[in-house]
Amino acid sequence: MGGSQLSIELMSAAFKLVKDVLKVDRNENVVITIDTTGDWRVAEAVAEATYILGGKPLVLWYPSPPAVGKAADPYLPLLPLTECVKNSDVWIEFNKSWLLYSTVYEEAMKINRTRYICLVGMNVDMMVRTIGRVNIPVVYEFQRRLADLTSRGRRVKITSPAGMDVEFENDPARPVLVEGEVSGPGEYMLFGQVDWAPYEESISGRIVFDGSMWPPHELGLLKEPIILDVEKGRIVKVSGGAEARIFERWIKNFNDEKMYCIAHLSYGCNPGAKLTGNILEDERVWGVVEWGIGSQSSTFKGKLGLASSHTDGICLNPTVTIDGEKIIQDGEYVHPSLRELASRIRL
What we know:
28% of the residues lie in helices and 27% in strands. By secondary structure, the protein is an alpha+beta fold. It has 2 domains: 7-131, CATH 3.40.1830.10; 134-179 and 190-345, no CATH class. Strand 12 (226-231) and strand 13 form a beta hairpin. The radius of gyration is 19 Å and the shape is globular.
């Protein structure tokens, strides 16, 4: 992509992110983190938009660590990075190797003054498609309805053409999160995702990743399915081809029992997202289901807490049934309360 291509659209998307999503006020300190495998143009555009709005941008650029979360700590300029981030009003993460669940993240969330949004691996094309060209208020309303349907249900069954067949029970005391609606300090994600953590010990069956998975760094778009047999919320068997063996070796090397735990799941509902191998985008592809493994954010109100690392996998064309009622069928939202909004979102 040439330097001038999508430059106007990028600036529009950056301004939309800073003003409409993150609600940056005049004189607020906005820290933007980006590693050497991130897209510098995105960080620069958001810094410029912040400055135009009267905010005070600070871009922190550092060598990309070969790990994510807590496992990235030894490779980071940890002390200065932590001090800058935890004293910011807004933290925007554009790193490819994310700081989510790292010591930097822990310290920032502990103080509870920062509005943090995780936009890891964001590039120009993705920012234009998933932010700039999206009718955000309509997506927010769709997410709220989807979250309400999910939070009112107890027994969930998810199947897919690739062989996924898993069941679990929701905990009515835990939140179903609608991503991207920023209101005060805390952790936020890109809109186009609704996620939650069910009763961990109730998750049993077979999960099949046939879209993408990342990390480990060797993976991304999958050539063959990675099959996980799960009992009471824990992975008990990994099967598949070469990519499954890469994943199994990666998870085993942590020597951390929590890395075998299912942490959360989500629906994808960003109309601009497409399957690219960038997990931030992939888990927002319309109608997919994503499962997170390892570290579990405190926002889910679950039992697991932080682990050595975290990974996410994408399941294509799922059918989701809650208390006998279909929410998604073969990757399309079919519930009556969602159909009309879904058609407006996907214009």
